[in-house]
Specification:
By secondary structure, this protein is an alpha+beta fold. The chain is built from four helices and 13 strands. α1 packs across α3.
Length: 222
């Protein structure tokens, strides 16, 4: 098993995040999944694998943090736009240096939107709500955070520490879109979820006293 960086899709280098997200719609699904092998043994090697990537309904990524690493399996068929945007942001290193800024014990850990010095990271592009995909906010799943507007999700995400079915869609009410699940390293997620919290930056509560920083998000390849 190898962990390889997800590159920025061709032609999107130096493009502002909002334009990147718009351009994503015109890229083939494989563009966000193409990987560049890292390490001396694989220097210069590339694995486009376009046909294989297009058929892969469950791409995996490894999230490396200062608290440890965990692996996510993403639901590309059930939440295609959300997965595409997450992979695009990961490939552009958007998440590197962001923190889990909100930790609520026995509920969720939330991150992807603030740096360690509490500078907000925010893209312009919003996602259509994909919560009606049959996936439930159960323990270990990852979903998009948003405001009260159901179609306001951008780059922040959360991981459920327990079954939070109240976050699922119901008749007449949108839910929060689940787009993957933790398949290894849930003990790391739980450890983050048990951190002591308090005020920090613009927040009056729920901020870990010891910052948990996302260092890298890598594609998992066999």
């Amino acid at each position: 098993m190898r962990y390889t960086r997800i590159p920025t899709p061709p032609g999107s280098e130096g493009v502002p995040p909002s334009a990147k997200a718009r351009r994503l719609r015109s890229h083939v699904w494989a563009a966000a999944l193409c990987v560049l092998a890292l390490g001396a043994g694989a220097a210069g090697a590339q694995e486009p694998a376009e046909a294989e990537a297009e058929m892969d309904p469950f791409p995996r990524v490894r999230v490396e943090t200062t608290a440890g690493a965990f692996t996510l399996e993403l639901f590309a068929n059930d939440a295609p736009l959300t997965v595409q945007q997450f992979l695009l942001l990961a490939g552009s290193r958007f998440y590197e240096g962001t923190i889990f800024h909100r930790v609520v014990q026995d509920f969720v850990i939330q991150g992807g939107g603030w740096s360690v010095d509490f500078q907000e990271r925010l893209i312009d592009e919003t996602l259509p709500n994909e919560s009606g995909n049959g996936r439930s906010n159960v323990r270990g799943t990852i979903a998009m955070a948003r405001t009260g507007d159901p179609h306001s999700a951008k780059n922040q995400f959360y991981i459920n520490l327990q079954d939070n079915v109240a976050l699922n869609p119901r008749p007449g009410r949108w839910g929060y879109a689940v787009f993957g699940q933790v398949v290894s390293g849930m003990e790391v997620v739980d450890e983050i979820g048990n951190r002591a919290t308090g005020p920090g930056g613009p927040f009056d509560r729920d901020v870990p006293a010891a910052p948990v920083i996302i260092e890298r998000v890598l594609r998992v390849t066999e």
